[in-house]
Amino acid sequence: MKKNINTLKRIYKFEADIIIHDKHPNYESTKLAHMTDTPTKELQHHYAHILGVMAEKKLKEKVFGVVFDGTGYGDDKNLWGGEFLSCDYQGFERIAHIKYFKLLGGTKAIKEPKRVALSLLFDSFGKEAIGMNNPTIHAFTKVELNTYYIAWKKSLNAPLSSSVGRLFDAVSSLLGIIHVMSFEGESGMMMEALYNNSIKGSYNFMYENNIINIDPMIQEIILEKDTSTAVSRFFHTLVEIISTVYEDYNLPLVLGGGVFQNRILLELIWKRFPNAIIGNKFPPNDGGIALGQIASGLLK
Questions:
Q1: pLDDT (tens digit, 9 = 90+) per residue, 21-51?
Q2: d(C-alpha 144, C-alpha 136), whole Å
Q3: Residue of 138, 132, 139 lying closest to 218 (CA atoms)
Q4: 32: helix, coil or strand?
Q5: Which are the contacts of 257, defined by CB distance < 8 A and separation ≥ 6?
Q6: Closest CA relative to residue 114, chosen from 132, 131, 130, 138
Q7: Could you give all domains of the chain from N- to C-terminal order, each with its CATH number?
Q8: What is the pTM of this model?
Q9: CA atoms within 13 Å, Cβ hemisphere of 46
């Protein structure tokens, strides 16, 4: 990375006045930033997502940002990813977020949806989940289930996350669609193919004290007999969650984060909110983060 930066500096004949980087302390870009003598500034990951869209669309007023992605280091050191933010170029306020759940096995949960799904079952049913007749439970041995229950209960290598990307993974495992992924976002792609636009309705959730509790949704999903129905209503539930949190705000609705690369979800949101804004010159996933970081440095 350092070699590539030096090459670009030589080609474009520039020296940075300031380096703006992600807040995650383990990112290589963060480590490299702190190895230089150049002044640095850290910027929260999801705030950068929204600033990137604001910069592309030349939005100057305060906006209501919805950021759904896989992982981003939060201000409370948890892994955010289901965030509702009030943003302008001076800063942001976290309005609401998906209730934290545990990623069993840490980074392994990113590749193995069954770990996230199991954690959500433990959230709703405790140890009784081990005896349930569900595809996620069948994806583990009895020994593994008991071991992961202990890890969940004692929070052993189980960081907290509010990620909607991980929520897609969990639902795909609960429905028996996929338990171990080959690449990021595979679960969402498979769920796109199962969506049926003739199916109506959504699942229940609770919104209180700025927390979106999706436990009721999980409890209803595992009772659903038809996979396509469950997937379709899951998509509708995400739109209902956005609608519920957004209804008290008279601000432009701005979307950011890799989950919004999902065609079905984006179409459903635009159907409900035709004026919702998302970038189209820069990708909504982490490919657009740098633009938000630049905007923070230039436009504040």
A1: 999 988 888 888 888 888 899 999 999 999 9
A2: 12
A3: 132
A4: helix
A5: 46, 49, 66, 67, 68, 69, 81, 164, 165, 284, 285
A6: 138
A7: 61-286 (3.30.420.40)
A8: 0.94
A9: 34
